[in-house]
TrEMBL record:
Leader sequence residues: none
Pfam families from the UniProt entry: adh_short (PF00106)
Annotated InterPro entries: NAD(P)-bd_dom_sf (IPR036291), SDR_fam (IPR002347)
This protein's name: L-xylo-3-hexulose reductase
Amino acid sequence: MEAIASRKRINPSKDAAPNALAGKVALVMGSSSGIGAAIVRELSARGASVVINYGWPDLERTVNDPWKSLKSPWIAVEGDISTTSGPSHLVQAAVDKFGKLDIIVNNAAKATLAKVEDTNVDLWDASMTTNVRGPFLECQAALPHLPTKSEGGGGRIINITSAVSTDPEVQQLA
């Protein structure tokens, strides 16, 4: 097994087979910038078609230009994973465009710092709907489309967390 991302400094693009993921379709939630954008570039370098997710309409203009250099087919899709319809919308866009889905990467997250006494239910719910319910609904929507082992290797679900999961910040909401 080879790592796409790791704490260890490696250059996976240089060492990976350039077409290791040819014919695969990957949906990367939270991929308009940061770690998600790096994952998109790596999946594309390995031959996967990618669905790039941005959460809000005002991010659309920042999404399209950087991706013109990708080596594989791609689409950018608006979808707010904190909503009940956002995750299934992203999955359906992938299937509509590419006819299938092989890999989902749950990377979107909402980082909120607040004291318990300053946290209201709305703030708590905003964190939970993005960080917990969103990936759950994404997996639920994707499962019918992911190939099984008997269909040629099986699909992949990759859940990304930050160092906050093992080294939490003071006042960090879940």
